[in-house]
Amino acid sequence: PVRVGMPTFTFVRDKRDDPLDAHKGNLTTFSMGFSSTVFGSGSDANFSRFLLNNSTYQRFHKKWVFARNTRIGIERLLSGGD
After folding, report:
1. How far apart are CA 37 and CA 56, in angstroms?
2. Which end of the chain is more exposed for a tag (fewer CB within 10 A), N or C?
3. 3-class secondary structure, 18
4. Distance separating alpha carbons of residues 55 and 23, to the nearest angstrom
5. What integer is the mean pLDDT of 65-71?
6. Where along the chain do its domains lie?
7. Tens digits of per-residue pLDDT, 8-41?
8. How close are the terminal C-alpha atoms of the chain, in Å?
9. DSSP bridge pairs for 58
10. What's phi and psi for 33, nearest 5 deg?
11. DSSP 3-state assignment of 80?
12. What is the SS3 assignment for 22?
């Protein structure tokens, strides 16, 4: 097993009309983190991670909502990693 400890930063922008039952608006999150032995987190891996998630909601009938979600992620090995 490989231990991974990672401090992360997350930005959230929520413009939905209702977080539990959205009918219009969008939700965007951006997260970045770095896993390294220098943080003292006990991590055995050295890499960076970037994640972007975007969801949109659009009502197109009294009872129907079009919902779309896109997720993009990148992980990169940092120098000194195996």
Report:
1. 38
2. N
3. coil
4. 12
5. 97
6. 8-77
7. 999 999 999 999 999 999 999 999 998 877 766 6
8. 14
9. 66
10. -150, 155
11. coil
12. coil
Write down the residue that tokens 């949109």 correspond to.
56
> Is-above-0.90 flag for pTM?
no
CA distance 49 to 33: 5
Length of the chain in residues, anyone? Answer: 82
CB 39 within 8 A of CB 5: yes
Q: Where are the beta strands (DSSP E) in 1-82?
A: 8-14, 25-35, 47-59, 65-77
Q: Which two tokens stand for residue 52?
A: 């972007």
Exposed/middle/buried for 35, CB within 10 Å: 0-12, 13-18, 19+?
A: buried
